[in-house]
Amino acid sequence: xxxxxxxxxxxxxxxxxxxxxxxxxxxxxxxxxxxxxxxxxxxxxxxxxxxxxxxxxxxxxxxxxxxxxxxxxxxxxxxxxxxxxxxxxxxxxxxxxxxxxxxxxxxxxxxxxxxxxxxxxxxxxxxxxxxxxxxxxxxxxxxxxxxxxxxxxxxxxxxxxxxxxxxxxxxxxxxxxxxxxxxxxxxxxxxxxxxxxxxxxxxxxxxxxxxxxxxxxxxxxxxxxxxxxxxxxxxxxxxxxxxxxxxxxxxxxxxxxxxxxxxxxxxxxxxxxxxxxxxxxxxxxxx
Length: 287
Description:
Elements: E1 24-29, H1 33-45, E2 49-55, H2 58-65, E3 74-78, H3 87-98, E4 103-108, H4 113-121, E5 126-129, H5 130-133, H6 137-147, E6 150-153, H7 154-162, E7 171-175, H8 185-196, H9 201-208, H10 212-226, H11 228-232, H12 245-258, H13 263-279, E8 282-285
Parallel strand pairs: 1-2, 1-3, 3-4, 4-5, 5-6, 6-7
Antiparallel strand pairs: 7-8
Helix pairs in contact: 8-10, 8-13, 9-10, 12-13
């Protein structure tokens, strides 16, 4: 098991381009290093979520719990720890003793009936396929914490139907892989690195072996295909792309600032607007 703890005063390489009210404090219990880094960057980049720690062992968890006045609002819990399937749930239970109001979003590569039953009987906040969440992890966490909804993805919802599990009244199904724009493979790569993970254009030009102005050109093309040009011109309403009212209000506040800003500040806020459009999931309620 990989041992890693990142406490609240540590800095990540990926940072938000503007100060935002990151008021959902997240503890991530994740054994897969690739998934942990990807999810960690997404939660750090989003304006709603702040990672207080990433843990992979009891010692890591104890160091987190020993931090005075450490607030944890959400636990993103990997349910698939090879050789020790009980440990993630035990870690979550210990965390919730100190943070009784914390909500738990469970993740998996492949949802399992026994785990689903345990999540429902324990009153946890959801069960999501990592792949099906796509880039909408922060949105799912916000739904669980702010709206009190039970979050599933398509495969875990189908599993619930197959095993005839009764679901909570406020259940939603997330699809984080909906096509947002007709991007080329190169534009998808640029969108992921430059917009989702906020890598500087100069660094990307070195990494991708293209000129910095080509990176900027690709980013501009992504903005256009996302509909930002038409939104800025007042020809499209952002409601077409954004269902969540809280996110929509935040999007509109940034939109109102863009026209009066310097080019440097405008560049950062444009990236944030694009980030919102790229990470918005398709959400449907279960009736």
